[in-house]
Amino acid sequence: MSLWTAAEAAAATGGEVRGAWEVQGVSIDTRTIAKGDLFVALKAARDAHDFVAQALQKGAGAALVTHVPEGVAEDAPLLIVPDVLDALEGLARAARARMSGKVVAVTGSAGKTSTKEMLRDVLGDQRRTHCAEASYNNHWGVPLTLARMPRDAQAAVIEIGMNHPGEIAPLARLARPDVAIITTIAPAHLEAFESIEGIAQEKASIFEGLEPGGVAIINGDLPTTPLMVARAEELGARVLRFGESAGCHHRLTRVQFSDDCLVCHARAWRTPVTYKVRAAGRHFALNALAALATAHVLGLDRALALASIGRWTPPAGRGLRQWRVLDPLERALSFELIDDAFNANPASMAAALDVLAASHPRDNLGRHAQGRRIAILGEMLELGTGEQALHRDIATLPAMKDVDLVHCVGPRMRVLYEALPDHKRGQCVEKVEKLAEDPLRLVDAGDVVLIKGSKGSRVSVLVDALRKLSHPADD
């Protein structure tokens, strides 16, 4: 069964078809394009029209373009449109219109992708579920995700992000969700917003896209919760709250930390439930409640949903924990790596440090008699005029008393480094490559190492370096 025929794509976009073709997928990248894909020639850092000939040579079924590119035959399989991004949105609308299942949209200052991935498992174990790849949550990622939605999808999970005011509502109206989730509101993207309230208002604009009778699932523990609830109700949504505070329909009552999972106790519509999350951090326990509330709204089997949550693990860069062996002949010589290198804001930084503080280093294994809790922290970006104070305040977090050593990456992290007591100071570098030159000097057997920072700080380079010099303990 094809994803798009030439006639369907032309009707959705108003474009001119060259040739009779069918495609099985949609791609924007010649490096990962599959045979039979529709290649979408977006204009971003480079004009993808320059790669259309290559895409067709690699087996693309057709290309979505504004003109016949150089090196492409006049009779090549094409869909010619005035604007490629507008046409991609047309495909997205048509895909959403022909879909008879339910759509869930997720936004928030942190936890969007992990919640989306959790929902992929919870929904996917009970329905044919289409889900956004990676963090495809912007002005091209959302329409691309929708355009790729299979004809027979029974559910879809769409992630919606933003950097500036006015970005979420148009994407929400494109996705037309039946359920919209706000994971949390935190100081992120403050360069573009005047206040936390401004961020909450932008996030709440996701409810403008809700289908009639749609449900808003909102974090009930936030100072901005009333603002978001009011906006959802104003737009006619039914509101469910999740969190730890009284009045939450899905309420977390107790969390027990262990080395390999969280054991979570909650009440879901007055029914006691217990579930495990194979990740560390209270925020994962709360995101699981949002997923459980979604399962309730969609009429899924609760027991199966709880089992799905118990099998889920966070993706790389978002809290993935793994013991790494330094010497394959001495498997006890290992350290624990907490990879949270994809994104950072003050709230997620505090949550990650809580995880590190609760970890259990191992003694008498390496050069140091005692295993250490080590934080390698990259700078937090897009925090606006208050960024210095927000970086400095990390030193005052309660979890910091249990952290043994802190390495700082990026110029914004200098104020944190200077606020730390001398015995906790590691290295402070402008660029992560300086630390990555000799990663073995940073860790020792028995240590627990957290790597956390905004994507732009590039601390993931150090994650890669540490992985290259070690082996997974479970190999």
Automatic annotation (TrEMBL):
User: Where is the Mur ligase C-terminal domain positioned along the sequence?
Assistant: 335-454
Output the GO biological process annotations, alphabetical, semicolon-separated: cell division; cell wall organization; peptidoglycan biosynthetic process; regulation of cell shape
**Which sites bind ATP?**
108-114
- GO CC annotation terms, alphabetical: cytoplasm
The protein's annotated pathway: Cell wall biogenesis; peptidoglycan biosynthesis
A molecular-function term among this protein's GO annotations: UDP-N-acetylmuramoyl-tripeptide-D-alanyl-D-alanine ligase activity
> Where located?
Cytoplasm
Residues forming the Mur ligase central domain are 106-295
Q: What is its EC number?
A: 6.3.2.10
Q: Which SUPFAM superfamilies match?
A: MurD-like peptide ligases, catalytic domain, MurD-like peptide ligases, peptide-binding domain, MurE/MurF N-terminal domain
Write out the catalysed reaction.
Answer: D-alanyl-D-alanine + UDP-N-acetyl-alpha-D-muramoyl-L-alanyl-gamma-D-glutamyl-meso-2,6-diaminopimelate + ATP = UDP-N-acetyl-alpha-D-muramoyl-L-alanyl-gamma-D-glutamyl-meso-2,6-diaminopimeloyl-D-alanyl-D-alanine + ADP + phosphate + H(+)
Q: Which domain of life is it from?
A: Bacteria
Q: Name one Pfam family in it.
A: Mur_ligase_C
Keywords from UniProt, A to Z, are: ATP-binding, Cell cycle, Cell division, Cell shape, Cell wall biogenesis/degradation, Cytoplasm, Ligase, Nucleotide-binding, Peptidoglycan synthesis
Cross-referenced Gene3D superfamilies, in alphabetical order? Mur ligase, C-terminal domain (3.90.190.20), Mur-like, catalytic domain (3.40.1190.10), MurE/MurF, N-terminal domain (3.40.1390.10)
Q: What family is this?
A: Belongs to the MurCDEF family. MurF subfamily.
Explain the purpose of this protein. Involved in cell wall formation. Catalyzes the final step in the synthesis of UDP-N-acetylmuramoyl-pentapeptide, the precursor of murein.
Q: What's the protein name?
A: UDP-N-acetylmuramoyl-tripeptide--D-alanyl-D-alanine ligase
Q: Which gene encodes it?
A: murF
